[in-house]
Write a structure and sequence with these properties.
The complex is a heterodimer of chains A (about 270) and B (about 575). Chain A is mainly beta. Chain A has one domain (about 1-220): Pectate Lyase C-like (3 Solenoid). Helix content of chain A is about 5%, strand content about 35%. In chain B, strands 3-2-7-21-22-23-24 form a 7-stranded mixed beta sheet, with helices on one face. In chain B, helix 12 (about 400-410) crosses helix 13 (about 410-420). The chains are: A mainly beta (about 270), B alpha/beta (about 575).
Chain lengths: ~270, ~575
């Protein structure tokens, strides 16, 4: 695996749209070619090399390319957008749309990420050591195709609207989650190891939400069914199972109505 | 004004009967002239090895107004990764199935179109329609106000008052700067106000107690009483329902006994729009039951002289459906569970909007695709059938070149059946597409995309041909009819013309947009005898029911229609 290291030398005044920071784009390119890739700062187009020192060369394929991003990248958006393979390590924070529409490979951010991380992603792994912003693994504005596959793990807390229109894949939040979790979900699994707040599973059709901690206000559309014992992400415990959202349509499979499942640890 | 001489191109013009001969075309002072009548100063456009036609005419598309804008507003995902920035005089563009006004104008120009009919204008929101038309560059446009669920029309026709209906139509065309009579799901949209529909043309509308059949015949009669340029333009009942072809045949038969009046040269009294959505057999969407009824429909259409139609061809894309057929959009959202917008327009109409994915992995999308093409390929007179996708309902208008490719090439159709559709063999089995080997010529395509629609709209004196005296709307496509035989070349060429002269102005030069043109809004001013009863009814309805004052209803002034082109009709007797 060949590593390309990007070190921020000139922080942008505005926000930087850097969707070209992706193993798929870097593959087969030397440091000098990578430095010539374009980024947008506001509505103006510049070269990546204006902001970053580029060291190392990419491998011939995305899968063999590793990108390390160093420095204060709090204002850098779209890192790893649409990537299909390879690895990205962001040592600091990243702004919005990290790993958006990601198809494969892995992204690790040691700091925090802002909103829309992993939206519409279909595969791959995203790990956030810090906190995630709103709309984690959600759908793009207006779209009904949220996260479809892959895994997102947040070691800290997540903002609101996690897994909005989620259809598949798994989101694990080791801390707490803000309001609106799995809204309109039609599949996938969201695990909150800390506390939830309110509006969990609103208009959920199918899928699973598992909360280890407290839920401030349970949605009125969820109905207690039974207690179940199960293993969730390495923890064996008893959970209270609720079905919902009863105000939403639900498909039938083999004559049985399929509900969204909300589990709360007892 | 500028003069142009388009030299050495292969010209196709069904009005002049030119079938690919090398003819030079002159343009002077905004009009077509004999090539010998331009001066030596004329700018020469070299069209050698290329196809030359009059600019295209679109008979039916939803390109401006409140429901189009709802589509734009509530589908930001339709614009995602599809924008292009401003460059030179060309403005920023965005969107795919519901493009911005600028992209709408530019893409029609790129396809070589010069006129587009906005197919459904809610009269109360006519001002919004005209603001968007104004903001759509290059192309001339007009809009058809909807009448088929209008309380005035329902009440007058219930009592058989054709003359009052006609006077009301004339008044409303003037108020809305409208062009003709659109009739969407006659009666059914009003029934939707009661949560009902009119699935056949014999189901009475609640409260008004009039049937769609009476509405259709009454509007034909009123339209011909006025002698408007265009005929009654109908979107029949039970759109999209399996087995609806019988309703469609019943609808088409309402035109029997009527003949066109007026001086605009059209032959038809009924235009049925997006006929594809109305030619279904069976009783469900499952492949066991659903089947094409294109043959039955076209057997009837081919047997009469007073009907035209447009295809409404499904293009197998993700798109945004939008129609004044309120109950249909509710039916659709129940089917695909995607977001639904719905509105009621007071005494006049309603509308709904739902995104839809014509997924080639499903049988039904493949069958719908096949039926649209079959209708055109079964037609005997290509001056009666027009290329549309009911933009954006069956697909975006930017797919017309692809539809043309499918019409012109059996190889391209077989490629869809074999490689694009998942259930291509089932589609062959349930439809007729597989057994049709007809391939249309460029001459026939010119009938379906310019000469025919121009004639049907009563605009043959302006558009659709290269006859001297017509508007200087000429397009040059980079397609050599003698040597190009790859179907993909057809789609490429019709998507990106080399040159477009619009109203005598060069708008596209060597494939690049070089001007925002001087677009015009066409509307029809029909003069009728004074009708105190209708004017009293209008005043009373505005006092009693409308949410706006009569004085705020009319589309007036430079702001809404900065560049009008008025077609006058005299129906006084």
């Amino acid at each position: 695996m060949d590593t390309v290291t990007l070190t921020l030398k000139t922080p942008p005044t505005l926000y930087l749209e850097a969707d070209n920071i992706s193993p798929d784009v870097f593959a087969g390119k030397k440091a000098s070619e990578i430095a010539e890739l374009h980024v947008f700062e506001g509505r103006e187009q510049f070269q990546l090399g204006k902001y970053f020192d580029v060291a190392g060369s990419a491998a011939t394929t995305a899968a063999d390319t590793r990108i390390v991003v160093k420095g204060d990248t709090t204002r850098v958006k779209y890192i790893g957008m649409k990537m299909s393979a390879g690895e990205i390590l962001v040592e600091g924070d990243a702004d919005m749309y990290t790993g958006a529409w990601m198809q494969g490979g892995s992204i690790r951010v040691n700091g925090n990420v802002d909103a829309f991380t992993g939206i519409g992603m279909t595969g791959g792994e995203i790990t956030i050591k810090g906190n995630a912003g709103n709309y984690l693994g959600a759908a793009y504005r207006g779209d009904w195709r949220g996260m479809q596959g892959g895994t997102i793990r947040v070691l800290g807390n997540a903002g609101s609207d996690t897994g909005y229109f989620m259809n598949g894949g798994e989101i694990i939040i080791e801390g707490d989650a803000d309001v609106h979790v799995g809204t309109h979900a039609e599949g996938g699994r969201i695990i909150i190891k800390g506390n939830g707040k309110s509006k969990i599973g609103g208009q959920m059709v199918q899928g699973e939400i598992i909360v280890f901690g407290t839920i401030d206000v349970m949605m009125p559309g969820f109905k207690y069914v039974e207690d179940v014992e199960m293993e969730v992400d390495g923890t064996n415990a008893n959970f209270a199972l609720y079905h919902g959202d009863l105000g939403e349509r639900h498909p039938k499979k083999k004559g049985q109505i399929v509900y969204g499942k909300l589990y709360q640890k007892i | 004004m500028s003069e142009y001489l388009i030299k050495n191109g292969f010209v196709f013009d069904p009005v002049l009967g030119i079938k690919g001969d090398k003819v030079d075309v002159g343009i002077k002072d905004g009009k077509i002239v004999e090539a010998s009548d331009v001066s030596s100063k004329a700018k020469k456009i070299d069209a050698s090895g290329k196809t030359v036609m009059a600019a295209g005419v679109d008979v039916h598309a939803h390109v401006a107004g409140p429901k189009v804008n709802v589509g734009r507003n509530y589908r930001p995902e339709d614009k995602l990764f599809k924008g292009s920035p401003k460059s030179g005089m060309k403005r920023m563009e965005g969107g795919f199935s519901v493009p911005t006004t600028f992209r709408t104008g530019y893409n029609y120009a790129r396809m070589g179109y010069g006129f587009v009919m906005e197919a459904a204008m809610p009269p109360l929101y006519a001002r919004h329609v005209h603001e968007e038309i104004r903001d759509t560059p290059i192309i001339d446009e007009a809009a058809l106000p909807v009448f088929g669920n209008n309380w005035f029309v329902l009440e007058y026709l219930k009592n058989g008052e054709v003359e009052n209906t006609a006077a009301y139509i004339a008044w409303l065309l003037r108020m809305t700067r409208g062009f003709g009579v659109k009739n969407v799901n006659p009666g059914g949209t009003e029934a939707w106000g009661w949560g009902l529909n009119c699935p056949t043309i014999h189901d009475p509308v609640p409260y008004f107690d009039i049937t769609p059949a009476q509405i259709i015949r009454g509007l034909i009669e009123a339209n011909e009483f006025l002698g408007l340029p265009h005929c009654m333009h109908v979107h029949g009942n039970s759109l999209g329902e399996p087995g609806n072809y019988t309703v469609t045949l019943d609808t088409l038969k309402q035109a029997e006994g009527f003949s066109p009046k007026g001086s605009f040269g059209r032959d038809q009294v009924l235009h049925h729009t997006h006929l594809q959505f109305h030619s279904y057999g069976g009783d469900s969407y499952a492949s066991k039951s659903f089947e094409s009824k294109s043959k039955e429909i076209m057997d009837y259409v081919n047997s009469v002289d007073n009907i035209t139609f447009d295809m409404g061809c499904v293009t197998l894309d993700e798109t945004t459906t939008m129609t004044a057929d309120g109950p249909f959009e509710h039916h659709l959202t129940e089917l695909n569970h995607l977001k639904w917008a719905n509105t009621d327009v007071e005494l006049e109409t309603a509308a709904g909007v739902v995104p839809y994915v014509y997924n080639p992995k499903t049988f039904i999308a493949g069958a719908q695709w096949a039926i649209g093409i079959e209708l055109a390929l079964y037609a005997k007179d290509m001056m009666k059938v027009f290329v549309t996708t009911d933009h954006p309902n069956a697909g975006p208008f930017t797919r017309y070149p692809r539809v043309i490719k499918w019409l012109m090439s059996r190889k391209a159709r077989e490629d869809v059946l074999d490689n694009v559709l998942k259930y291509g063999d089932t589609v062959r089995d349930r439809c007729f597409i597989g057994e049709i080997d007809r391939e249309l010529s460029l001459y026939e395509i010119a009938m379906m995309t310019r000469a025919g629609p121009a004639k049907a709209l009563g605009l043959a004196h302006m558009f659709g041909s290269l006859k001297p005296g017509l508007e200087g709307d000429v397009v040059v496509y980079p397609f050599n009819p003698e040597t190009d035989d790859d179907p993909e070349k057809i789609e490429q060429a019709f998507s990106n013309c080399s040159f477009l002269v619009k109203s005598g102005q060069l708008v596209i030069d060597k494939g690049e947009i070089v001007s925002n043109g001087t677009k015009r809004t066409l509307w029809v001013d029909a003069k009728v005898n004074e009708n105190p009863q209708v004017m009293r009814d209008v005043e009373q309805k505005f006092l009693k029911y409308y949410s706006v004052n009569l004085g705020n209803y009319e589309v007036t002034g430079h702001h809404f229609v900065p560049n009008p082109y008025v077609i006058e009709v005299d129906a006084t007797q």
